[in-house]
Amino acid sequence: AVLANNGLETVVWARNRQLADEINSRHVNERYLPGVTLPAGIQAVTRVEEALCKAKLVVVALPSAALADGVETLRGVADEAVVVHAVKGFVRPQNVRITSYIRERVPTVADRLAVISGPSHAEEVVRQLPTTVVVASESRVIAEFVQDAFMNDRFRVYTQADVIGVELGGALKNIIALGVGLVDGLALGDNTKAALMTRGLAEMTRLGVALGASPLTFSGLAGVGDLIVTCTSEHSRNHRAGCLLAQGLSLDATLQRIGMAVEGVGATFAASELARTHGIEMPITRAIEKVLLGELSPADGVGLLMRRGKNHEMEDIGGQPLTALWVRP
Ligand SMILES: NC(=O)C1=CN([C@@H]2O[C@H](COP(=O)(O)OP(=O)(O)OC[C@H]3O[C@@H](n4cnc5c(N)ncnc54)[C@H](OP(=O)(O)O)[C@@H]3O)[C@@H](O)[C@H]2O)C=CC1
Ligand SMILES: O=C(CO)COP(=O)(O)O
């Protein structure tokens, strides 16, 4: 919708014929964006090749779980087309970032890749409510190309060079949003929620730095920005999933009830495995993993986190350890 509103010829691939017809004839997508009229310029096709063959910019917005199915189609992108993805998750079970996966499977697009991320619930973007996001690429030219395509006075786009940090911020915040949903479902109040978001950001940053990200990226739009919106918005599927789990629904029933991507579930398992491999402490992620596996109740998960041993707040997050500031023993 943003690209079409910017006057770009915009072709959407939908595998479902009925949905493609609905977009072309009535300019709506009732299942995923009810109550919204889409820009009339959007054309939907059911053959992915039709969407890809002439495109100068390809936006990959599949759920991470569908990427393994879909990645090979990127072999069909035109020479010199830029590929930007909006996927906030990991490819499982390898636990790899999306650009790493695309680069490995489709080397021909490796130097034309970018990621777009940040606080941007589709329900609000499509209504043209003011939104800010960030585009990261290893190439400044590619990042600025994507920035120019998307930017308008309702959708402000910043550029970034830290691809790893931007991808990890978008994927890891979903875990914390699940956790905030769990504590909201238990009606534990605002202090608990703020604690989870803040300490969640600390462990997101810790893993990010171990995987090569800049700690600064986590204080930007793809880090704290997206964390805030996903943990507090009525639109968040991850937050809603946490609430349902806290109310006693099984994980399967929760995912079925939501009926859309809940990236935080796969991300919890991915981050937990990556943390183990890299020797990183991620107590909140570990507790949520146990809740998802049915090994711990949400209430016991909170108790476990509160009873942890004493800690210094800013240790191991990256940058200068703040314990160095102590002037007395
Ligand atoms: N929703 C949002 O506000 C935002 C989402 N994101 C990220 O975008 C990604 C996609 O999320 P979102 O669109 O919300 O997810 P939804 O579950 O709402 O929609 C998924 C879409 O992908 C299609 N799809 C699923 N599997 C396949 C497949 N194997 N092949 C082809 N199409 C498939 C579905 O089509 P069908 O109906 O045919 O199954 C549907 O159109 C996620 O990583 C999410 O984190 C990023 C920013 C904002
Ligand atoms: O990433 C999002 C908003 O920026 C969407 O979050 P949910 O997947 O939790 O709905």
Automatic annotation (TrEMBL):
BP term (GO), one: glycerol-3-phosphate catabolic process
Q: What's a GO cellular component annotated to this UniProt protein?
A: cytosol
The protein's annotated pathway: Membrane lipid metabolism; glycerophospholipid metabolism
Reaction it catalyzes: sn-glycerol 3-phosphate + NAD(+) = dihydroxyacetone phosphate + NADH + H(+); sn-glycerol 3-phosphate + NADP(+) = dihydroxyacetone phosphate + NADPH + H(+)
Residues that hold sn-glycerol 3-phosphate according to the record: 88, 118, 120, 173, 226, 236-238
Residues in domain Glycerol-3-phosphate dehydrogenase NAD-dependent C-terminal?
A: 162-300
Cite the PROSITE patterns for this sequence.
NAD_G3PDH
InterPro entries, A to Z:
6-PGluconate_DH-like_C_sf, 6PGD_dom2, G3P_DH_NAD-dep, G3P_DH_NAD-dep_C, G3P_DH_NAD-dep_N, NAD(P)-bd_dom_sf
Q: Where in the cell is it found?
A: Cytoplasm
UniProt GO MF annotations: glycerol-3-phosphate dehydrogenase (NAD+) activity; glycerol-3-phosphate dehydrogenase (NADP+) activity; NAD binding
Q: What class of enzyme is it?
A: oxidoreductase
Residues bound to NAD(+): 122, 237
Binding-site residues, NADPH: 15, 32, 88, 122, 237, 263
Q: Which residues form the Glycerol-3-phosphate dehydrogenase NAD-dependent N-terminal domain?
A: 1-140
The answer on whether this UniProt entry bears the keyword Lipid metabolism reads yes
Q: Provide the function of this protein.
A: Catalyzes the reduction of the glycolytic intermediate dihydroxyacetone phosphate (DHAP) to sn-glycerol 3-phosphate (G3P), the key precursor for phospholipid synthesis.
Family that this chain belongs to: Belongs to the NAD-dependent glycerol-3-phosphate dehydrogenase family.
Question: What's the name of the protein?
Answer: Glycerol-3-phosphate dehydrogenase [NAD(P)+]
Query: What is the protein's species of origin?
Result: Alicyclobacillus sacchari
